Protein backbone atom coordinates (compact mmCIF):
# COMPACT_ATOMS: atom_id res chain seq x y z
CA UNK A 1 0.00 0.00 0.00
CA UNK A 2 2.83 2.39 0.78
CA UNK A 3 4.34 1.73 -2.65
CA UNK A 4 1.01 2.48 -4.36
CA UNK A 5 0.63 5.69 -2.35
CA UNK A 6 4.18 6.74 -3.27
CA UNK A 7 3.53 6.14 -6.97
CA UNK A 8 0.29 8.10 -6.86
CA UNK A 9 2.01 11.00 -5.11
CA UNK A 10 4.82 11.03 -7.69
CA UNK A 11 2.31 11.08 -10.55
CA UNK A 12 0.38 13.94 -8.94
CA UNK A 13 3.55 16.02 -8.56
CA UNK A 14 4.62 15.34 -12.14
CA UNK A 15 1.25 16.24 -13.67
CA UNK A 16 1.61 20.05 -13.40
CA UNK A 17 5.11 19.86 -14.88
CA UNK A 18 3.91 17.83 -17.85
CA UNK A 19 0.98 20.18 -18.35
CA UNK A 20 3.31 23.17 -18.32
CA UNK A 21 5.59 21.53 -20.84
CA UNK A 22 2.68 20.82 -23.16
CA UNK A 23 1.07 24.28 -22.80
CA UNK A 24 0.89 26.26 -26.02
CA UNK A 25 2.99 29.42 -26.04
CA UNK A 26 0.84 32.54 -26.11
CA UNK A 27 1.47 35.05 -28.93
CA UNK A 28 2.79 37.75 -26.57
CA UNK A 29 5.15 35.49 -24.66
CA UNK A 30 8.88 35.63 -25.45
CA UNK A 31 8.47 38.80 -27.54
CA UNK A 32 11.68 40.78 -27.79
CA UNK A 33 11.52 44.15 -25.94
CA UNK A 34 11.41 47.39 -27.88
CA UNK A 35 14.11 50.05 -27.83
CA UNK A 36 12.17 52.61 -25.82
CA UNK A 37 13.98 55.92 -25.30
CA UNK A 38 13.57 57.99 -22.14
CA UNK A 39 12.14 61.47 -22.62
CA UNK A 40 12.04 64.35 -20.15
CA UNK A 41 8.69 65.72 -19.01
CA UNK A 42 9.53 68.99 -20.79
CA UNK A 43 9.54 67.27 -24.21
CA UNK A 44 5.85 67.69 -25.02
CA UNK A 45 5.20 67.64 -28.75
CA UNK A 46 1.81 68.47 -30.21
CA UNK A 47 -0.39 65.36 -30.32
CA UNK A 48 -3.54 66.89 -31.78
CA UNK A 49 -5.04 64.75 -34.54
CA UNK A 50 -7.19 66.54 -37.10
CA UNK A 51 -8.46 63.47 -38.94
CA UNK A 52 -11.73 61.75 -39.73
CA UNK A 53 -12.01 58.13 -38.54
CA UNK A 54 -11.65 55.62 -41.35
CA UNK A 55 -14.53 53.36 -42.28
CA UNK A 56 -15.23 50.39 -44.49
CA UNK A 57 -16.73 46.92 -44.71
CA UNK A 58 -14.43 45.17 -42.23
CA UNK A 59 -15.66 44.93 -38.65
CA UNK A 60 -13.41 44.61 -35.60
CA UNK A 61 -15.21 43.64 -32.42
CA UNK A 62 -13.72 43.68 -28.91
CA UNK A 63 -15.48 42.41 -25.79
CA UNK A 64 -14.89 43.47 -22.19
CA UNK A 65 -13.05 40.21 -21.46
CA UNK A 66 -10.48 40.84 -24.22
CA UNK A 67 -11.88 38.65 -27.01
CA UNK A 68 -11.05 40.14 -30.39
CA UNK A 69 -12.76 39.15 -33.65
CA UNK A 70 -12.55 40.48 -37.21
CA UNK A 71 -15.21 39.90 -39.90
CA UNK A 72 -14.71 40.69 -43.56
CA UNK A 73 -17.25 42.26 -45.93
CA UNK A 74 -18.96 38.88 -46.44
CA UNK A 75 -19.42 38.38 -42.70
CA UNK A 76 -16.77 35.65 -42.52
CA UNK A 77 -14.72 35.63 -39.31
CA UNK A 78 -11.11 36.18 -40.35
CA UNK A 79 -9.67 36.38 -36.84
CA UNK A 80 -10.77 35.41 -33.35
CA UNK A 81 -8.28 35.59 -30.52
CA UNK A 82 -7.71 36.75 -26.96
CA UNK A 83 -5.62 39.69 -25.78
CA UNK A 84 -3.11 39.65 -22.91
CA UNK A 85 -5.74 41.23 -20.64
CA UNK A 86 -9.02 43.09 -20.61
CA UNK A 87 -9.16 46.23 -22.77
CA UNK A 88 -8.54 49.40 -20.77
CA UNK A 89 -8.19 52.08 -23.47
CA UNK A 90 -8.42 52.01 -27.25
CA UNK A 91 -7.52 54.25 -30.19
CA UNK A 92 -7.97 53.94 -33.94
CA UNK A 93 -6.15 55.07 -37.06
CA UNK A 94 -3.46 57.64 -36.24
CA UNK A 95 -4.31 58.02 -32.56
CA UNK A 96 -8.01 58.91 -32.44
CA UNK A 97 -9.32 57.92 -28.98
CA UNK A 98 -12.38 55.68 -28.77
CA UNK A 99 -15.09 56.48 -26.24
CA UNK A 100 -15.11 52.87 -25.01
CA UNK A 101 -12.40 50.18 -25.13
CA UNK A 102 -14.99 47.57 -26.06
CA UNK A 103 -17.44 47.57 -28.95
CA UNK A 104 -17.52 47.14 -32.72
CA UNK A 105 -15.90 49.43 -35.28
CA UNK A 106 -15.67 49.50 -39.08
CA UNK A 107 -12.37 49.64 -40.95
CA UNK A 108 -11.31 49.88 -44.62
CA UNK A 109 -9.72 47.23 -46.79
CA UNK A 110 -7.45 49.73 -48.57
CA UNK A 111 -5.46 50.99 -45.57
CA UNK A 112 -1.81 51.91 -46.25
CA UNK A 113 -0.47 48.78 -44.54
CA UNK A 114 -2.69 46.57 -46.70
CA UNK A 115 -0.07 47.22 -49.39
CA UNK A 116 2.74 46.14 -47.08
CA UNK A 117 5.62 48.41 -46.12
CA UNK A 118 5.63 49.75 -49.68
CA UNK A 119 2.47 51.70 -48.84
CA UNK A 120 4.25 53.71 -46.12
CA UNK A 121 6.35 56.85 -46.48
CA UNK A 122 8.88 56.69 -43.67
CA UNK A 123 10.29 60.12 -44.45
CA UNK A 124 6.93 61.88 -44.11
CA UNK A 125 6.85 64.83 -41.73
CA UNK A 126 3.69 63.43 -40.14
CA UNK A 127 3.48 59.61 -40.19
CA UNK A 128 0.00 59.38 -38.67
CA UNK A 129 -1.96 59.35 -41.97
CA UNK A 130 -0.14 56.08 -42.81
CA UNK A 131 -1.57 54.50 -39.66
CA UNK A 132 -5.09 54.70 -41.06
CA UNK A 133 -7.05 51.49 -40.56
CA UNK A 134 -5.33 50.35 -37.35
CA UNK A 135 -6.82 49.62 -33.92
CA UNK A 136 -4.67 50.21 -30.82
CA UNK A 137 -5.60 48.51 -27.54
CA UNK A 138 -4.07 49.02 -24.09
CA UNK A 139 -4.89 46.12 -21.75
CA UNK A 140 -5.49 46.39 -18.01
CA UNK A 141 -2.19 44.74 -17.11
CA UNK A 142 -0.48 47.55 -19.05
CA UNK A 143 2.30 45.25 -20.15
CA UNK A 144 1.43 45.26 -23.85
CA UNK A 145 -0.07 47.49 -26.50
CA UNK A 146 -1.94 45.34 -29.02
CA UNK A 147 -2.15 46.70 -32.57
CA UNK A 148 -4.77 45.22 -34.88
CA UNK A 149 -4.92 45.56 -38.66
CA UNK A 150 -8.45 44.48 -39.57
CA UNK A 151 -7.78 44.68 -43.34
CA UNK A 152 -5.34 41.76 -43.07
CA UNK A 153 -6.84 40.23 -39.89
CA UNK A 154 -3.48 40.36 -38.16
CA UNK A 155 -2.45 41.54 -34.70
CA UNK A 156 0.86 42.29 -32.97
CA UNK A 157 1.72 42.93 -29.32
CA UNK A 158 4.20 45.67 -28.43
CA UNK A 159 5.93 45.30 -25.03
CA UNK A 160 5.55 48.53 -23.07
CA UNK A 161 8.06 50.26 -20.77
CA UNK A 162 7.64 49.86 -16.99
CA UNK A 163 5.03 51.92 -15.19
CA UNK A 164 1.40 51.99 -14.12
CA UNK A 165 -1.62 53.91 -15.38
CA UNK A 166 -0.08 54.36 -18.83
CA UNK A 167 -1.12 56.98 -21.37
CA UNK A 168 -0.50 56.69 -25.10
CA UNK A 169 0.21 59.52 -27.56
CA UNK A 170 0.60 58.93 -31.28
CA UNK A 171 2.88 61.75 -32.44
CA UNK A 172 3.90 62.72 -35.99
CA UNK A 173 7.37 61.18 -35.65
CA UNK A 174 7.07 58.70 -32.77
CA UNK A 175 4.91 56.71 -30.39
CA UNK A 176 5.01 57.98 -26.82
CA UNK A 177 4.02 56.28 -23.56
CA UNK A 178 3.79 58.10 -20.23
CA UNK A 179 3.20 56.57 -16.79
CA UNK A 180 1.33 58.21 -13.91
CA UNK A 181 2.98 55.93 -11.37
CA UNK A 182 6.53 54.55 -11.43
CA UNK A 183 9.09 53.26 -8.96
CA UNK A 184 11.12 55.97 -7.20
CA UNK A 185 13.70 57.44 -9.56
CA UNK A 186 12.35 55.66 -12.65
CA UNK A 187 11.51 57.67 -15.79
CA UNK A 188 7.89 58.50 -16.48
CA UNK A 189 7.97 59.15 -20.22
CA UNK A 190 9.23 56.96 -23.05
CA UNK A 191 9.08 57.04 -26.83
CA UNK A 192 10.10 55.10 -29.92
CA UNK A 193 10.47 56.41 -33.48
CA UNK A 194 8.25 54.94 -36.18
CA UNK A 195 11.35 53.63 -37.94
CA UNK A 196 12.10 51.68 -34.78
CA UNK A 197 8.76 49.89 -35.22
CA UNK A 198 9.44 48.94 -38.84
CA UNK A 199 9.93 45.21 -38.20
CA UNK A 200 6.88 44.99 -35.92
CA UNK A 201 4.56 46.86 -38.29
CA UNK A 202 5.71 44.65 -41.17
CA UNK A 203 3.94 41.72 -39.48
CA UNK A 204 0.62 43.56 -39.92
CA UNK A 205 0.94 43.61 -43.71
CA UNK A 206 -0.33 40.97 -46.13
CA UNK A 207 1.42 37.62 -45.81
CA UNK A 208 2.63 35.96 -48.99
CA UNK A 209 1.54 32.33 -49.18
CA UNK A 210 4.46 29.89 -49.67
CA UNK A 211 4.84 28.56 -53.18
CA UNK A 212 3.44 25.08 -53.76
CA UNK A 213 6.10 22.47 -54.48
CA UNK A 214 6.28 21.18 -58.04
CA UNK A 215 6.33 17.61 -59.22
CA UNK A 216 7.69 15.66 -62.16
CA UNK A 217 4.43 16.13 -64.06
CA UNK A 218 3.91 19.78 -63.02
CA UNK A 219 7.31 21.31 -62.16
CA UNK A 220 5.81 24.83 -62.13
CA UNK A 221 2.27 24.60 -60.72
CA UNK A 222 0.03 27.55 -61.56
CA UNK A 223 -2.28 27.34 -58.52
Q: H/E element string?
A: HEEEEEEEEEEEEEH
Rg on CA atoms, Å: 22 Å
Q: How many DSSP-defined strands?
A: 13
Helix content: 10-25%
Structural class call reads: mainly beta
Question: Whole-number average pLDDT?
Answer: 83
Fill in the CATH topology of one domain. Lipocalin
The top level CATH class name of one domain: Mainly Beta
- CATH architectural group of one domain: Beta Barrel
Inertia-based shape: globular
Terminal Cα span: 65 Å
Any overview of this molecule?
The structure is a single chain. 29% of the residues are buried. With 223 residues, the protein is mainly beta. The protein is globular. Helices cover 12% and strands 31% of the residues. Strands 6-5-8-9-10 form a five-stranded antiparallel sheet, with no helix packed on it. It has a four-stranded antiparallel sheet with strand order 1-13-12-11, with no helix packed on it. The protein has a domain at 54-202: Lipocalin, CATH 2.40.128.
Topology (SSEs and partners):
Elements: H1 2-22, E1 37-39, E2 58-62, E3 67-71, E4 77-82, E5 87-92, E6 96-97, E7 103-107, E8 135-139, E9 144-149, E10 154-159, E11 164-170, E12 174-181, E13 189-193, H2 198-202
Antiparallel strand pairs: 1-13, 2-3, 2-7, 3-4, 5-6, 5-8, 8-9, 9-10, 11-12, 12-13
List the defining traits of the structure above.
13 strands; mainly beta; 12% helix; 223 residues; 5-stranded antiparallel sheet; disordered N terminus; Lipocalin; globular
Task: Give a summary of the structure in a few sentences.
By secondary structure, the protein is mainly beta. It has helices at residues 2-22, 198-202, and strands at residues 37-39, 58-62, 67-71, 77-82, 87-92, 96-97, 103-107, 135-139, 144-149, 154-159, 164-170, 174-181, 189-193.
Amino acid sequence: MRLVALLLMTAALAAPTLAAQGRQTLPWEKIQPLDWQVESDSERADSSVAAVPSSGPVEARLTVDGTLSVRDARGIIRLKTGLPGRPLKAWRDGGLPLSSPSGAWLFPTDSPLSQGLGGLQWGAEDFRPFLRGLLWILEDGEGFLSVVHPATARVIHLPLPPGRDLHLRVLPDRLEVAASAVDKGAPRRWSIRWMGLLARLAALGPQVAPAKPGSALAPFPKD
